[in-house]
Specification:
Blueprint lengths: L3 E5 L8 H10 L4 E4 L17 H10 L6 E3 L12 H21 L3 E4 L9 H15 L7 E5 L12 H10 L6 E6 H6 L8 H11 L5 E6 L1 E2 L10 E2 L8 H8 L8 E4 L4 E2 L7 E2 L2 H9 L3
Parallel strand pairs: 1-2, 1-10, 2-3, 3-4, 4-5, 5-6, 6-7, 7-10
Antiparallel strand pairs: 8-9, 11-12
Length: 288
């Protein structure tokens, strides 16, 4: 089995989701990740305007059978300081779950949130409260909590913090985890020299069957920096060889691997930035 590789793609204009599929195909991808609208705001088009059916027809014609959705960054379930911010987060997350399911995806990736000074324990309790408001026994869509780098007051910098969330959520069977390589590295996990050991620790605390996908990013920082700055494949402190080992790991070949690496200067126009995903996907498909 070959790894399932893709990247973040856009969704705009008249084509909407069909345009997302076409962009993924231009990178020779097997899957893709999209936002249902701008990640910095809550403005969204109606589901009927997303061009879902033509997108799925194009996907099936090109052997793409799944994709994932990323919730916007502005959702902060951990906020105990501003009740209005929390309520907006819960309401919008519920709508994003509906949109994700309507588009035919089963995975909605979520940054757990930042406690904004109230402390980790208070933040975890607040996130669990929010997840308990939106997760139901009968829904098809799961929420994949993303591993975080440890920047500021964000929750999810350790497997222990994620495990605490799983313990406090009633319908924890609807929770999954998105393992981000840059975030893991920046949080201090040695995925370069001991990836299996890192996974063993996660398995002990949560269970590796709960991993839904990987974000594949190199890091501009040394391990444990807690800064979350993505680098292009091979241009950071994780390196191509280690990332290839993760991409081709036999335990996770069936899971999607999504690139979120920075755009790079165009070879024909240095003032223009272009996506690196076609070349990076090809690079990662080569075995370690």
């Amino acid at each position: 089995m070959n790894p399932i590789l893709g990247s973040h793609v856009g969704m705009s204009g008249k084509d909407m989701m069909l345009g997302s599929v076409k962009e993924a195909l231009s990178y020779h991808a097997d899957t893709f990740m999209l936002y249902t609208g701008a990640p910095q705001n809550t403005r969204r088009k109606e589901i009927g305007q997303l061009n879902i059916q033509p997108a799925w027809e194009c996907m099936r014609a090109n052997n793409i059978d799944s994709f994932v959705v990323h919730a916007p960054y502005i959702i902060n379930l951990a906020n105990t300081v501003n009740p209005a911010t929390y309520e907006i987060a819960v309401e919008f997350l519920a709508l994003e779950i509906e949109r994700t399911a309507a588009m035919g995806s089963r995975i909605l990736i979520l940054h757990p949130g930042s406690h904004v000074g109230a402390g980790v324990e208070a933040g975890i309790d607040r996130i669990a409260q929010g997840l308990n408001e939106v997760l139901t026994a009968g829904q098809d869509c799961c929420i994949a909590l993303e591993t975080m780098a440890g920047k500021g007051s964000e929750i999810g910098r350790s497997f222990e913090e994620l495990a605490a969330l799983f313990d406090k959520v009633t319908h924890s069977d609807k929770l999954r985890v998105c393992m981000d390589t840059c975030h893991l590295h920046d949080a201090g996990y040695d995925i370069v020299n001991d990836f299996d050991g890192v996974i063993d620790r996660f398995d002990q605390l949560i269970g590796k069957e709960k991993i839904a996908l990987f974000h594949i990013n190199d890091s501009k920082n040394e391990r444990g920096a807690g800064k979350d700055r993505h680098a292009n494949i091979g241009d950071g402190f994780i390196g191509t060889e280690a990332l290839r080992r993760i991409v081709h790991h036999p335990d996770f070949l069936h899971l999607p691997k999504i690139l979120e690496t920075p755009y790079i200067p165009s070879l024909t126009d240095p003032d223009k930035k272009v996506a690196p995903y076609k070349e990076e996907i090809a690079l990662l498909r080569e075995r370690a």
